[in-house]
Automatic annotation (TrEMBL):
One GO MF term attached to the UniProt entry: catalytic activity
Occurrences of domain AB hydrolase-1 (ranges): 157-274
Pfam families to which the protein is assigned, alphabetical: Abhydrolase_1
Gene3D superfamilies, per the entry: alpha/beta hydrolase (3.40.50.1820)
Domain of life: Bacteria
The protein's name in its UniProt record: AB hydrolase-1 domain-containing protein
Length: 386
């Protein structure tokens, strides 16, 4: 083989290798991006019930079961449920917790699943509060909602996070109900009990806010004069899009955000590290979400521009009081962006930090502190209730 032919073959081989590498990297980035926007339908059991006593239960030790606070445990494939409290003892591979109550079934040793919401059921079965099941029509279909009545002209709309259910909001209802606020707790597109929007993937707040806007409009059409928005995790991202993009924003008096996503770039960098994905590769996947061609590879209906959901950068645009509760031990949505947002807008943002709770479990670790912070914010900052 002469030198010119050898050089040509070498160049071709280099180009082919680069192409293969590029395809592999794009495939890995697409896989990461799809994981970010794909609802997780199946939630497997993640712990073992080892022993059950009259007022205590022994569980396998996991990252969740050893953390102080109040939590729930689903058993028998979700048909059974009991609630646990203080950690009484901890040893190798096991933790003994106070058994606070049994809501369904009979606790017995076996497979189970952790319930960070603590409560299970609806506002009546879980909290003993009168409620009504209703549906709100949205662009994607009828959204199931719980409505807990109250006397205040300010209604609270409570929005759960990514992959969660309406039960996530139950922890906040008693404190808001005590202030007289009617509470409206909706599902949104791609929830298990809500319509599926083609292609059945999350918009990370960029699309879901339309559903919550429909719920807010329902509230205003049925007696609400003002709205308090309450959200957890991605629910916070949804609500921030609503107040930035909806013509109903003028009716909103404030936001209560628990472990919210205020900067998706930071969250997805963190998620990449957690999954062992190089951050640069994760960023490539994030870029695909917003690229007209990349979003087709991911399977999105339209591009998702995460820059519009970076509220640290957009801090100057905030115009409403915000109560921001976030734990430094949050293992899913780091608290750094929330802290930076609070520092950027101390005139509007009241920040309540903590150091023990995992993601959106601030109430679980300190129910009285959480409810006190929310009550003080609503009564003093918003002049509601009291």
């Amino acid at each position: 083989m002469n030198g010119r032919r050898a050089a040509a073959v070498g160049a071709l081989a280099t180009t082919a290798a680069a192409t293969v590498t590029g395809v592999a990297l794009t495939g890995a980035a697409v896989s990461f991006a799809r994981a970010v926007v794909t609802p997780r339908r199946h939630k497997p059991d993640d712990l073992e019930v080892l022993q059950v006593g009259p007022r205590r239960v022994v569980l396998s030790a996991t990252a969740d079961t050893v953390v102080p606070g109040r939590y729930g445990v689903w058993t028998d494939g979700g048909r059974g449920h009991f609630r646990v409290g203080d950690v009484l003892e901890a040893g190798p591979g096991r933790v003994t917790r106070e058994l606070l109550g049994v809501d369904a079934g009979t606790p017995v040793p076996g497979h189970a699943r952790w319930n960070q919401y603590y409560y299970a059921g609806d506002p009546t079965t879980a909290l003993g509060l009168e409620h009504r099941d209703l549906t709100v029509r949205s662009a994607v279909g009828d959204l199931p909602c719980w409505f807990v009545p109250g006397d205040s002209p300010t209604w609270a709309v409570l929005v759960h996070g990514r992959g969660a259910t309406r039960e996530e909001a139950l922890r906040a209802v008693p404190a808001l109900h005590a202030l007289g606020l009617p509470c409206l707790v909706p599902s949104y597109r791609n929830d298990a009990d809500a319509p599926q929007a083609e292609p059945g993937l999350y918009g990370l707040g960029d699309t879901e806010w339309h559903d919550v806007e429909a719920v807010a409009r329902y509230a205003l059409d049925h007696g609400a004069q003002r709205l308090l928005l309450v959200g957890w995790s991605m629910g916070g991202a949804i609500l921030l899009q609503l107040v930035a993009r909806s013509d109903l924003a003028a009716e909103v008096v404030g936001l209560v955000l628990d472990g919210p996503v205020v900067d998706w770039f930071d969250v997805l960098d963190h998620q990449a590290r957690q999954r062992g994905v190089p951050v640069r590769l994760g960023r490539y996947g994030v870029q695909l979400l917003g690229h007209p061609l990349g979003r087709r590879l991911v399977g999105l209906e339209g591009p998702v521009d995460l820059r519009t959901m970076d509220w640290v950068t957009r801090a100057e645009e905030l115009s409403l009081p915000v109560l921001l509760l976030h734990s430094d031990a949050d293992d899913y949505v780091p608290s750094g962006p929330s802290q930076r947002l609070a520092r950027a807008r101390p005139d509007l943002v009241t920040y309540v930090g903590s150091s023990t709770a995992r993601h959106t479990k601030e109430w679980n670790v300190d129910p009285a502190g959480w409810e006190s912070a929310v009550t003080e914010f609503v009564t003093s900052k918003l002049e509601v209730g009291g």
